Amino acid sequence: MTKLILSTSNIMNGGPSIIRRPTSEKSNTELTNSLRANFLASQEAVAPQVNGSKVETNRFVNSSGKGLSYTAWTTRTERALFVPSIDFSTSGLLEERSQYDITVKLFFLPSTEALEPSEHVEEAISLVLSELHVPSVDLLIVSFSGITFDADDVEDDDIENQDLMEGENLDSMARTWRALEALHAKDVVAQIGLAEFGSERLKKFLPRTKIRPSVDQINVRDCCVVPKDLILYAKQEKIELLTHNDCTNILPGGTVRELLGRGDKGAGVLARSDGDSGGLKGEVEPQWVVKYTAVVRDRGVIENKGYFAMAQVAD
Fold this sequence. Notes:
- By secondary structure, the chain is of the alpha/beta class.
- Helix content is 28%, strand content 24%.
- The chain has helices spanning 27-46, 117-132, 157-167, 170-185, 199-205, 228-236, 253-260, and strands at 2-7, 54-56, 59-61, 75-76, 81-83, 100-108, 137-143, 189-195, 215-218, 240-243, 283-296, 301-314.
- The strands form two sheets. A ten-stranded mixed β-sheet has the order 4-5-1-12-11-6-7-8-9-10, sandwiched between helices.
- The longest helix has 20 residues, at 27-46.
- It is globular.
């Protein structure tokens, strides 16, 4: 099994190659475009160092006509293969930590291995802290795989209770939540929150927690109409309701293979299914994505925003 750590770097510093998303566009488009742009920028940076390399229609070839090996612009450590290579010494914030509100959202994906959720949480936060050169973040929100919020349905308690029984494992979520509580206890995270929890779901989940969520982030359709029962229950439990426009399955496996494969838009990290000798062989399974945003408090300006993603390739 090979672990891959994908990264976008700070997308606020990106040039025209990074497509800024309209407010109505969901963030998986921003993520995939930013990953692709960072891969290409890293290839461009190392291409002059590789004998005979040149750019032809966004693909890198050398004088023999062979593609630029992914090993030239990635880094393999005992921990993982970093795609692209990361130099944390060149990143960080411009001002003191106290000048920023830093929000992190961790998306667990359908193929996430839930045996050790604390390892996923700690690894994701560690990457963000290293990238921003900070000891802590203000808010960490967790988005569980398969959990969706539908403003049209939550008024029907029977429907929601049925969904809870059939589609969710609250005990598994509680184990993951304990990893967030541990980070809070260490002062690594000031506040912890959830995503897509309606009132019935919250009522079932809160008794399983030691530290209650400060935030419930929901994806609301139809002009952001939040159900009244959720508003009242959140107020009662002192939970702030926030809205978002993120995809729940923000990075499907097929998208990862397209990004890392050897097609016209691929980065050449994964081998083709026809048995070619270049690239990693095996099925790729994305595990999680973490999004981080650092906002300058007194100006309300996003100075640093980016993503990390972890995937596994079964050898």
